[in-house]
Design a protein that fits this description.
By secondary structure, the chain is α/β, with parallel strands linked by helices. The chain has 15 helices and 31 strands. Among the domains are: about 110 residues, Immunoglobulin-like (Sandwich), CATH 2.60.40; about 110 residues, Sandwich (Immunoglobulin-like), CATH 2.60.40.
Length: about 650
Amino acid sequence: MTSPLTEQDLYLFNEGTHFRLYEKLGAHPGNEDGVAGTWFAVWAPDADQVSVIGDWNLWDKRANLMTARGASGIWEAFIPGAAQGMRYKYHVISRYNGYRVDKADPFAFHAEKPPLRASIVWDLDYMWEDAGWMATRQDKQSLAAPMSIYELHLGSWRRVPGEGNRSLTYREAAPLLAGHLQRLGFTHVELLPIMEHPFYGSWGYQSLGYFAPSSRYGTPQDLMFLVDFLHREGIGVILDWVPSHFPGDEHGLAFFDGTHLYEHADPRKGFHPDWSSWIFNYGRNEVRSFLISSAVFWLERYHADGLRVDAVASMLYLDYSRKAGEWIPNEHGGRENLESIAFLRALNDEVHAAAPTAVTIAEESTAWPLVSRPTYVGGLGFDYKWDMGWMHDTLAYFAEDPLYRRYHHNQITFRMVYAFNENFVLPLSHDEVVHGKGSLVNKMPGDLWQKLANLRLLYGYMWSQPGKKLLFMGGELAQFREWNHDASLDWHLLDDEAHAGIVRWLEDLNRLYQQEPALHELDCDPQGFEWIDGSDADNSVIAYLRKGKSPGEPLLTVFSFTPVLRDNYGVGVPGAGCWREILNSDAIEYGGTGRGNYGGVEAQPTPLHGRTHSLTLTLPPLGVLFLQREDEKERDNRDFRDNRDEEEEKAEEDEAGS
């Protein structure tokens, strides 16, 4: 078998511009002169000797030596008898200090189920059936699209109690997850990292399998089935991806060939103090090729619709979580990590070239400018950025006793100062419901009724704000306990009517978000938002309009952040007409008290809030109202429908009476 590695491959790899290394390095079954076997290739430039050990040679370190390809740093070998499903590792002998180690394959497509550590020879053949989705997905995740994302940790979403409380497999989860997301109305699911990771308790954020999905839940084809199934059910799949750091397990990337190959040698740049893990050397050409190839791999071979890139802030700053003297300034004396910045820009450019309709989302918690702006204008090139400031301010505000919220009013209004500086996703993620922070509902003050009303109010505020939405699993259940990665969600709460009301509220919020252009078309455009009044701190009330691209009617949202029923509250509106109450978080079916405006309110020619007309509203306690003006045609149609329904009911009563 002729080596799959051409001289051009070697050149591009060493140059840092080979972005499909998974086609060349790793293990690839084939045949040579009619003899079946597998071609292996691994990067270990400072090795003195490398051999492949595995099931076929009884793990004999001398049986299958590899050959170095010139000065490229790559070792390769064709090994007859090495076949699909066989386990293997590389035995590396360094040219320094006699260092010897058995390493898993950095490019393996499959691996043993942890705590076992061997790689597995595997192909990625799969018959995809999601062509319809792939052809139209650009319309599902553009800036103008309604993106509502359900964040999921697969290992603890649902468990099988009768079988040792085990996690669901990829295939078992597919129909259950699709049904749940369709009921709730989420457009996408975001999977916490499913790349292979040694420590389950890291939730995948200590990844080592940059080309291998976790075998805890099945084979690569099983994960492909999950993605394929969700696509066919109209649901997008975003993968959490971690290029910021990796764990130091001996079989992994760290000290791979007896040198700091993937990581910086200097711990001031190469070791992460927060996570006790290694930081990639983004200035090394081959490392850039490795990481960008990984990103492209998940988009091309697993049809992922996007990548959420973890811990971007830690990549941008050399002094991130470091004290004076613990970091090295850049060549200009600054704190910016110039190598990492260049890598992120190259990553986004290549990802968008390889998969133009896929998206990249940055978890970035600082005020770094232009994160979600194109690289050609000096941006980092991401499509979206998590709005961590909104999350912190909003949760801090909701944690306040409503009596004192008047003193923190700016926390609920400040976002609009910067809301369109980036293309934002509003995240209520897994990070907010672990490590003693309490579940979302338990962050809320008051008795049980007030906690649930506050939670409905929080979701109504979130879904009405400009930006895409992300909610971590369990939030839909109003789960009281914190997330536990070793246990299933508390699905029994669905049998409780109060918690079922939260589910119904989210269903209706997602439905309205998708159906009403005013709530999503201009999510990332200042033309999509207009204050009515954000200054009523004394009553803790705010009101604003959301608008779409077309000249259709805007949507009015009014929020009351205290448990006080407010009658005859005036809100200015743009013009005359009847404003229909579309959603009310205090409705009985959501678990509220049923206070509201009897379906709608007629605007009166009383100027208020700089408007020619105003509404006199009943504001429910800890409630949000969504209202929209009806045009005359729609109003006539509604009156006609109401009259028709009354006539039909009367006819039925007469018939029953006769």
